[in-house]
Structure formats: structure tokens, C-alpha cells
Amino acid sequence: MSTKRYVCTDKQITPPKTIKEGALIFLYSPGDNNLIGPFTALSDGAEKLDAGAWAMDVNPHIPSEDLTVTWENLHIIQNAREQLPFLAESTICRLSTSQTQLILDLLKQSEPYLNAKAQ
Predict the structure, then answer these.
(1) What's the pLDDT score for residue 50?
(2) pTM here?
């Protein structure tokens, strides 16, 4: 998280054309089943995304320019698939308007990320 760079999945993919500057971004870790956000894209996404932040084969010594984000007041939804069953489809990179709104509503009600991290 300290580099503020994320990608869509743990495989190289062609990103959806909707990753544009100002887009809302959520970080979901299938292994932990936690969703963190909201983030805001500060740039358009790259044409080809590199392997994701959660992939085991990522080389942390090579900087990525895939997507730069910023954030304020991050919150975490723990056990996210229970409340957001559409997350079970790990290849999704694009959410519908109603899915995005549901995530935002749940994040408002959830624990601040910094509190959860401190535990």
C-alpha cells in the first residue's frame, strides 16, 4: 500500500476502458477476504496491467506505473464475500453502479482501516 500502486488481478490482463482518472478503486484480497477502500485513481490505467499486488510472483524491486491512486479515510470490510457475493468471481475488474454503491455503503459502516491494521 505504501507505493500507492495497484492492479486488477494476479494475471496480466487488458484492463477495462473505465479505469480513468477519478475512478473509484477498491482493493480486494481473496486470500484474506478483505476489501479496503475507497481509493481514487490519479491517472488512467496502463494499456496492459502487470501481475497484481497480491500475486506471489511479483518482483517488488521493479516499480509499476499501472495505476496510481490516492485515498482518505480508508475502511475495511472483513469477510467481504459474505456481504458481497459477487467478489467470488475473482476475474472481475469492473463493478456495476449498484455494486459500487453497496460497497461504499458497507465501507461507511465498517471499521477504519488504520484501526484494523493496528490490531
Answers:
(1) 56
(2) 0.74
